[in-house]
Amino acid sequence: MDGLRAINVYVIEDDDGLTLIDGGWAIPVARDLLDRSLTQLGAGFGDIRRFLVTHVHRDHFTMATVLGHELGVDVGLGVGEKPALDLLNNLDRVTESPFLGVLRSAGAHEVADLWAQGEPDVPPREHWAYPTHWFESDHAISVGERIVDAVHTPGHTPGHFVFADRAAGLLFAGDHVLPTITPSIGFTMPPVDNPLGQFMASLTKVRSLPDLRVLPAHGPVAESTHARCDELLAHHDTRLAASLAALDDGPRTALEVAGSLGWTRHEKAFADLDPYNQGMAAMETKAHLDLLVARGDATATDDEGGVVYAPVVEQR
Question: Does 315 have pLDDT greater than 80?
Answer without folding.
Answer: no
